Amino acid sequence: MKIVDLRATTVAMPLEAPLRHANGAHWGRFVRTIVEVETDEGIVGIGEMGGGGQSAQAAFAALKPYLVGHDPFRVEELRFKLANPTSSLYNNRTQLLAAVEFACLDIAGKALGCPVHTLLGGKVRDEVEFASYLFFRYPDAGTGRGEVRTVDQLVEHALELKREHGFRSHKLKGGVFPPDHELRAYRELAKALPGDTFRYDPNAALPMEEAIRFGRAIEDLDNDYLEDPTWGLNGMRQVRDAVRIPLATNTIVVNFEQLATNVRDPAVDVVLLDTTFWGGIRACVKAAGVCETFQIGVAVHSSGELGIQLATMLHLGAVVPNLTLAADAHYHHLVDDVIVGGKLSYRDGRIAVPDGPGLGVSLDRDKLARYAELYQRLGDYPYDRDPGRPDWFAMVPNQSWADPEDAASGLARPGGATG
């Protein structure tokens, strides 16, 4: 079997409301590039990649000469063809490789009539548990609804998500407002949801000293972990020494060299494996094996997935025996999906692992076309800018916080679209 074509289509998927984070915002939509890899036997595999609010179509088009004629079963060879560690210093193709790997594993599963999790060694669980992913949000431009700014709004939103989806673990994405405001919000979440567990992630925005103060102030709560409270391996080591909460990261341990460093001189206790950031599902499985050997915790990170990448997260979660923590997902913030049947469903905070051939999800052609047209109309947006603070940009550590008393109006997007 040989690859004969690669196609990439960028879509804009509306969100319930714009999501705020320490480095800017998701401006009311995710921009994702959907990849299709076609073989000479007529089997087409699908993959997906983000891009910080920007299209990756041109980058995938540049990969076509590398892929045509390649056997999609030879995914280890593909790793060096696309992302040789030396040449990747110039082209940084890790996430491009991941999307192509998704598609190749999808092809292999379809060709053999088995799900991807079988190719990875077989599943040890049928469902993957997820945490709620709580963001401070601007109100939706069209409806005026969906704002999460005050402590009461955050608690109400978390309770609503628990009623609807059954989440038992709750993650607050912080680094937006002054730490004291977010500390009050986090403690009120814990008070409103007794018996559940919690995790806080300010995207490394806090100075090391503030990260220690915040961590000590929440030690009495039922924390899963404190994620990236400050920047860098050395900063995280100092926080880890000072705070009695496990530390987690998806920023400073995202490759095997960094993982080795963390094994030799621990800075974090939990590594959040991302199927795109690590270069594919198989890389995450390898990393999980290293973590199992050295008793480092693992969880599954979310980078703004639609249903295709969500499927890769589910297959990863299915085969990793040491996954003892709920995974992250932005998925419940989406208003729709590009896969047949629409959005996958949560049941008691869990999503069932697909058992169909390959990734177990298929493209809905009508929706792909609809959201591709929406992308053409709206275009890109700068993920690392805040539309409510046009002159602001993120620094690490941050010292310029948004004002929680400033009730923002709905944010119009290019073309006047909403959602």
From TrEMBL:
Q: Which domain of life is it from?
A: Bacteria
Q: Which InterPro entries match?
A: DgoD-like (IPR034593), Enolase-like_C_sf (IPR036849), Enolase-like_N (IPR029017), Enolase_C-like (IPR029065), Mandel_Rmase/mucon_lact_enz_CS (IPR018110), Mandelate_racemase_C (IPR013342), Mandelate_racemase_N_dom (IPR013341)
Q: What is the lineage of its organism?
A: Bacteria, Bacillati, Actinomycetota, Actinomycetes, Pseudonocardiales
Q: Where are the transmembrane segments?
A: none
Q: Where is the Mandelate racemase/muconate lactonizing enzyme C-terminal domain?
A: 151-246
Pathway-wise, it operates in:
Carbohydrate acid metabolism; D-glucarate degradation; 2,5-dioxopentanoate from D-glucarate: step 1/2
Q: What is its EC number?
A: 4.2.1.40
This one is known as glucarate dehydratase
Q: What Gene Ontology molecular-function terms does this entry list?
A: glucarate dehydratase activity
Q: Name one GO biological process term.
A: amino acid catabolic process
Q: Which reaction does it catalyse?
A: D-glucarate = 5-dehydro-4-deoxy-D-glucarate + H2O
Species, as recorded: Actinophytocola xinjiangensis
